[in-house]
Amino acid sequence: MAAQPKRGGVSLPERPSASKPESSILSRITSTPIISRGKQVASDAAFVSKKLIRSTGKAAWIAGTTFLILVVPLIIEMDREQQFNELELQQANLLGAPPTVPASK
Prior knowledge:
Layout: H1 25-30, H2 33-95
């Protein structure tokens, strides 16, 4: 006698057992322990890859914003200083003053 489905529940069709001769070769191959272990390993690898990509993205964001906040203003200020020094050198050459060599320590 077949089991009665619960009220409001969904009844699923019976699963074919491995002893039935009409099961296909594909279903027999995909139900092997090696295939199921391979699927589990692939799932775990996908999970780790997703976490690694997310962490790498966060690290890239932190590095990028830190670079913008700390390094870019420094580069701009160094460029301004270089332009100012070149301007002073040009003015000194126009006025005929001897070029000054910065003292090295």
